[in-house]
Amino acid sequence: MSNPSLLILPGDGIGPEVMAEVRKVIDWFGAKRDMAFDVSEDLVGGCAYDAHGTPLTDETMAKAQEVDAVLLGAVGGPKYDTLDFSVKPERGLLRLRKEMDLYANLRPAQCFDALADFSSLKKDVVAGLDIMIIRELTSGVYFGEPRGVFKEGNERVGINTQRYTESEIARVARSAFELARKRDNKVCSMEKANVMESGVLWRDVVQEIHDAEYPDVELSHMYADAGAMQLTRWPKQFDVIVTDNLFGDLLSDLAAMLTGSLGMLPSASLGAPMANGRPKALYEPVHGSAPDIAGTGKANPIACILSFAMALRYSFDKGDEATRLEDAVNAVLADGLRTADLLGEDGVQPVSTAEMGDAIVAKLDASL
Amino acid sequence: MSNPSLLILPGDGIGPEVMAEVRKVIDWFGAKRDMAFDVSEDLVGGCAYDAHGTPLTDETMAKAQEVDAVLLGAVGGPKYDTLDFSVKPERGLLRLRKEMDLYANLRPAQCFDALADFSSLKKDVVAGLDIMIIRELTSGVYFGEPRGVFKEGNERVGINTQRYTESEIARVARSAFELARKRDNKVCSMEKANVMESGVLWRDVVQEIHDAEYPDVELSHMYADAGAMQLTRWPKQFDVIVTDNLFGDLLSDLAAMLTGSLGMLPSASLGAPMANGRPKALYEPVHGSAPDIAGTGKANPIACILSFAMALRYSFDKGDEATRLEDAVNAVLADGLRTADLLGEDGVQPVSTAEMGDAIVAKLDASL
Ligand SMILES: [Mg+2]
Ligand SMILES: [Mg+2]
User: Could you report the per-residue pLDDT of B56-72, keeping only the tens digit for each?
Assistant: First the structure.
C-alpha cells in the first residue's frame, strides 16, 4: 500500500514559516512512528498570483482533488489589496473549498490550561474548555441567489438569499453527530427557527436525522442569539455545536476568542468520503497571513501544527497520534515556552517560530 | 400645554409587578420635578388575548400611535404556548413595532460597578462598560420575501431573503450618528461586506450619510464576525455600534451578556419623528415575562425602571432627569441592595420587587 498523500500549500505571509515547523513534525512521524507521507508542495494565494497570474492554478486544484489531505498555511497581504476581486489571494482558498465541496467546517475552541489567563473571561469559565463548532461552509446566505445591489425606483436595494436544501442540512448534521459520538455525545443545533423558515427546516431536518440515525446522541436546539449569550456565559455547557454558514461564521469566531489566543487554533474543512473512504479534507490554522510579522521569527506555528493533528485524527484515523501531538504542544506550553503573540506574563522571553517547532519535536521524542 | 402622554402596557408574567414600581417613579417625577405625565394603561399579550381574543386590540394599537411614548413590561407565558401563531402574545409586541415602524432598536450594554462580578468576563474588561448597540428592527432577513419552506424535486428547501433598501439603511444610520453625538461621538458599523452584497450597500450608505451629514462623528466599519470577537475581547473600544436586524439580534444579546445581569438592561425602539417632533417610541426591558417567578416578589424592576429613564432621555429630552434616575439605581446597588436574581455574594438577603422600587424612590428624594 502506498503512503498517504499530503498536499502542502504554505501560501503567503507567515504561511511558509509556520509550515516549515509542520514539516518537522510530519518528518518526525515518518521517522519515529512509521507513518510516512507522500508530501508535495505547491502555491496558493498571492504567491501563486505572482508566479502564474492566478491565486490557484488548475494543476494545483487537480492535485488537491487527488491527495488524501490538503494542509494550508495562510493567504493574502497588502501587496495584493489592489488586485481585481477575481484574482485576489482569498479566491484561491474559496476555490479549493468550493470545488472540493468542503461543507463541514470544524472549528475547535480549546483552552490550554497554561494559557487560560489570556482570555478576557474569568479563568474558571474557560479553563479546560473543549468545544467543537461545526459550521456549514458551502451554502446559505453567502452563496444563495438572487444576490446583488439593484436599482429599484430611485434607490438601491441590497439583496442576498439564505437558502438551504434538506440534503445540505442532513449531511452537515451527520458530520456533527458522527463527531459527537467520538467526543461527549452531545450536539446543540443553532438557528433562528422563531423568525426564519430556513431555520425551521434546519431544526426539523437535524431532528429527523437524529431520530432516524443517531438516537443515541443527546440533541438540543437553541436560537442562535441565545447561543451567543450562552457561549459567553458558560461555554463548557457545550460539546458539539452545529449551525449554518452565517451563524457559524460569527459563533465560531466568538468561541475562538473565548480562548484568548487565536494563534493556537486549528481548523478542518471536510467534504464527502472519497473512494478510499477518507473525506475530502483541507486543514488550516484560523489565524491569517500576518504580513506585518512575516520573516521576523515571531509567528506562532502551533495553530498550523495542531491543524496537522486534526489531519491525523480526521483524515488518517490516527486519533492516538493526534493526541500525542496535542500533548506535546501542551507540555511545551506548560514549560513556559511562548512565542511573541503569547507574551503578557512578566519576564518571559519569547522563543522564535523555529524554536517552538523544535521544542514540540523534542516533546514528541520524549513521548516515546 | 398639555402633559406628555404615556401608554403603559404591563403585559404578562412579572410585567405588571415591575411596572407597578415604574409607576412609583413616574409619580415621583410628577410630584417632585413638576413633570406630570398623562398615563393610560392597557392590555397586551396573553392578558389581552384572555380579555379580547387578540394579543393587541385595534383600540390599543390606535392609542399607541397617539401617545408620546409606550412603556411595555413583558409578554408571554406557558399558558399561551398552544395558541395559534397568529394570536400568540408575541404577535402583540410585533404588531406594535411594525405599525409604529420602530426601525431603530437601542440596546445599551452597561455594566454597573457594583455588579461587575456577575459577568463571566474579567472585572477590568467590563467594569464601567457603556456601549450602545443600534439594531435595525423592521427589515432585513427576518422580513424579506420570498420566504418559506418549498418543495424542490423530492426535497424541501428553506428560503429567507435578506433585503435592505438605501433609505432603510440611511435612517438607522442617522439614528446612530445622532446618538453618538450625545455620547462619545464614535460609531462602528458592522456587516459582512466581504461576502454579502447587502453588506456592501450597508457599508456604502452608512459611509455616505456620514460624509454628507455627520463628518464630525468618528466612523469605522467592522465585519460582524470580527465584531463578535472584539466585543468579547475588549468591549470598551466601542461607543455606538450600528448593525442590521440579524447581526444586531446576536450582537446585542452578546453585549447584554457581557454585563452579566440581564435583569438590569432596558431597551428603546424608536421610529420616525411625529408631528410634535418626538420619535415614535416604545420602551421595554430586555428580560422576558418570567412566568415562573410572577407574583412571588422576586422580580427585578430595575430594567423596566431604566427603560423609563430611556424614555425621559429619548422621548422627552430630559437627559438630566434620566441621569438622576440612573444615579439613583446606581446608589441603591452600591448600598448592596439586591433582588433575588442578583444574589451570589455571601450573606446578602434579597429585597422584594417593591422594596427595590421604594429604595430607588428614596434615592431620588435624596437627590434633591
Ligand atoms: Mg468568521
Ligand atoms: Mg436576540
Answer: 999 999 999 999 999 99
CATH value at residue B345: 3.40.718.10
Closest partner residue to A155 among B166, B232, B246, by Cβ?
B166
pLDDT at B347 over 90: no
Which residues from chain B sit within 8 angstroms of residue A224, using beta carbons? Answer: 249-250
What's the rounded mean pLDDT across residues B289-312?
97
Q: End-to-end alpha-carbon separation of chain A, Å?
A: 26
Query: Length of chain A in residues, anyone?
Result: 368
Q: Which three cell numbers stand for residue B322?
A: 434620566
Residues of B in contact with A125 (CB under 8 A): 120
Based on the domain organization, do B87 and B127 belong to the same domain? no
Does residue A151 sit at the B interface (CB-CB below 8 Å)?
no
Q: Is A246 annotated to bind ligand?
A: no
| pLDDT band at residue B261 using 50, 70 and 90 as cut-offs | confident
Per-chain mean pLDDT for chain A: 95
Sign of CA dihedral B2, B4, B9, B14: negative
pLDDT in tens, B221-249: 999 999 999 999 999 999 999 999 999 99
The range of the structural domain enclosing residue B59 comes to: 1-115+261-368
Q: Does B56 share its domain with B143?
A: no
Mean pLDDT of A65-78: 96
State how beta strands B186-191 and B218-223 pair.
parallel
Which ipTM score applies to this complex? 0.94
Provide the number of structural domains found in chain A: 1
Last residue of a domain, one of B243, B259, B275: B259
Give the distance from residue B52's alpha carbon to the nearest chain A alpha carbon, in angstroms: 25
A344 in a domain, yes or no?
yes
Question: Would A218 be classed as within a structural domain?
Answer: no
Record the cell numbers describing residue A260, joined without a space: 484568548
- Nearest C-alpha of chain B: how many angstroms from A159? 5
CB contact under 8 A, B156 and A225: no
Q: Is the peptide bond before A146 cis (omega within 30 degrees of 0)?
A: yes
Q: Are A88 and A55 in contact (CB under 8 A)?
A: yes
Q: From chain A, pick out residues whose CB is under 8 angstroms from the CB of B205.
A: 156
